[in-house]
């Protein structure tokens, strides 16, 4: 097989460590005039264009992006594809929002044709926003996950998804049973887990909508198959937390419910985690579990302010989640914008380099995929985005005043959105180009 080598010339940045652990200077690599060399869909090398171009075999195709910043594709560690069509639904907090808007919208996914249509819209939207990997909720219908994985496979994307497990406290039209949920999950795992770039996540919606039997079955699935993810919600809303306490009085708190059923692991991702005590953070840390920080959703539903510094203190892995449709944007740049404000309201800071980390390598680490995506380490899959410094008249005007790299990064994160994404690549192939 001849190797298909291509090169991309632009300003290039990638995160190589968490600024909270290694300090800002050691957390990234930046090449003002950089070159990314991609062979057979993988990163061959990244560095200064002047050096790498001299060693590039004659005839290698080089694509140039002036006034652009090339970086690894964004990682969204929590999102619901079936909620694409009900984003921006007015006026409620979590539990009423679920009953009034979410469950009726998810009912439509009993129709595979509807699921296939929404999966296409959803993936197109992710790529328009520069997101190349996501951890994705389906609905209770196994066909919703078949539709999602089929669409992701066709685009050769690294994606993680699962069928919702929900056998109580939800409308009858949207519930499974402990037994059928287990069986359907197994079927999907056999069909999709490890196929191409796809992984399966065992997905109990949240503790209130699963019986003890169903949570036990979820734990059993995790024992039965290698490398499965566990994806659910945790401590998002105060009424929800109280409800969990009343449903599981034998447990010491919300996280303890999941712990009791062996659902905490290095591949467990919990969305939100706003109202957690120190002991819960400690337990997340010692089990290697991760939290998806979803600021646009937390503000939209009035859920509360996520305490990122506390997670850093406890060394809990954290990624960013858009949480569409409670989240109000598919854009990880817009998500960073809101994350910055959430920090400001708590008297804390979110630096541009920590933001870069969360959007890329931090997300990859939360998903235990840092050996494949999230940075331009040699051999990694070539999932990357090209961001346009001149995407809008205002951004162009503001960038002209920006003197330093951190200033430019910060402007991208405050003013950037889908318009900023000039091109998105997955496994070395262009999968979105803004024309
Ligand atoms: N908790 C349980 N289900 C959901 C959901 O669909 N969205 C959010 N934000 N929280 C949840
Ligand atoms: Zn969610």
Descriptive notes:
With 435 residues, the protein is α/β, with parallel strands linked by helices. It folds into two domains: 5-73 and 374-433, Urease, subunit C, domain 1; 74-330, Alpha-Beta Barrel (TIM Barrel), CATH 3.20.20. Helices cover 39% and strands 24% of the residues. It has 17 helices and 16 strands. The chain has helices spanning 19-22, 49-55, 94-107, 112-128, 142-154, 178-192, 212-224, 238-247, 254-260, 278-287, 295-300, 308-313, 332-344, 352-359, 361-366, 393-401, 405-415; strands spanning 5-15, 28-39, 42-48, 61-72, 74-80, 131-137, 158-162, 164-165, 198-204, 229-234, 268-272, 290-293, 317-320, 384-388, 421-426, 429-433. Strands 5, 6, 7, 8, 9, 10, 11, 12 and 13 form a nine-stranded parallel beta sheet that branches. The protein has a seven-stranded mixed beta sheet with strand order 3-2-1-4-14-15-16. Helix 10 links the parallel strand 11 (268-272) and strand 12. The longest helix is centred in the N-terminal third of the chain and has 17 residues, at 112-128. It is globular and about 65 Å long. Zinc ion is lined by residues 78, 80, 233, 271, 323.
What does this entry show, briefly?
With 435 residues, the chain is of the alpha/beta class.
Main features:
17 helices; Urease, subunit C, domain 1; guanine deaminase activity; EC 3.5.4.3; binds guanine; TIM Barrel; binds zinc ion; seven-stranded mixed β-sheet
């Amino acid at each position: 097989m001849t190797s298909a080598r291509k090169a991309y010339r632009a300003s290039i940045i990638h995160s190589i460590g968490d600024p909270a652990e290694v300090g800002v200077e050691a957390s990234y690599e930046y090449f003002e005039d950089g070159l990314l060399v991609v062979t057979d869909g993988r990163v061959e090398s990244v560095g200064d264009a002047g050096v790498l171009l001299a060693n590039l075999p004659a005839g290698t195709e080089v694509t140039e992006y002036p006034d652009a910043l090339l970086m690894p594709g964004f990682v969204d560690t929590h999102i619901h594809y079936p909620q694409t069509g009900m984003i921006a639904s007015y006026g409620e907090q979590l539990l009423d929002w679920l009953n009034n808007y979410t469950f009726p919208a998810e009912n439509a996914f009993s129709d595979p044709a509807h699921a296939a249509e929404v999966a296409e819209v959803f993936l197109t939207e992710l790529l328009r926003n520069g997101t190349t990997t996501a951890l994705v909720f389906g609905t209770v219908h196994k066909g919703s996950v078949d539709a999602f994985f089929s669409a992701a496979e066709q685009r050769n994307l690294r994606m993680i998804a699962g069928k919702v497990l929900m056998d109580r406290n939800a409308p009858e039209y949207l519930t499974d049973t402990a037994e059928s949920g287990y069986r359907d999950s197994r079927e999907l795992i056999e069909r999709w887990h490890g196929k191409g770039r796809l992984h399966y996540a065992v997905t109990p919606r949240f503790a209130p909508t699963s019986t003890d039997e169903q949570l036990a079955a979820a734990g059993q699935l995790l024992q039965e198959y290698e490398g499965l993810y566990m994806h659910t919600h945790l401590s998002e809303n105060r009424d929800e937390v109280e409800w969990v306490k009343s449903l599981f009085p034998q447990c010491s708190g919300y996280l303890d419910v999941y712990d009791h059923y062996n659902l905490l692991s290095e591949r467990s991702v919990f969305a939100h985690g706003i109202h957690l005590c120190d002991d819960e953070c400690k337990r997340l840390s010692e089990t290697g579990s991760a939290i998806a920080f979803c600021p646009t959703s937390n503000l939209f539903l009035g859920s509360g302010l996520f305490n990122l510094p506390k997670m850093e203190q406890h060394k809990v892995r954290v990624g960013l989640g858009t949480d569409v449709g409670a989240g109000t944007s598919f854009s990880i740049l817009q998500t960073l914008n809101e994350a910055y404000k959430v920090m400001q309201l708590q008297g804390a800071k979110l630096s541009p380099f920590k933001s870069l980390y969360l959007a890329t390598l931090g997300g990859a680490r939360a998903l235990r995929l840092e050996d494949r995506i999230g940075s331009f380490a040699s051999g990694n899959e070539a999932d990357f985005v090209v961001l346009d410094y001149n995407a809008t008249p205002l951004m162009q005007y503001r960038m002209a005043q920006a003197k330093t790299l951190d200033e430019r990064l910060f402007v991208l994160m405050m003013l950037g959105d889908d318009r900023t994404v000039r091109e998105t690549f997955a496994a070395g192939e262009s999968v979105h180009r803004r024309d």
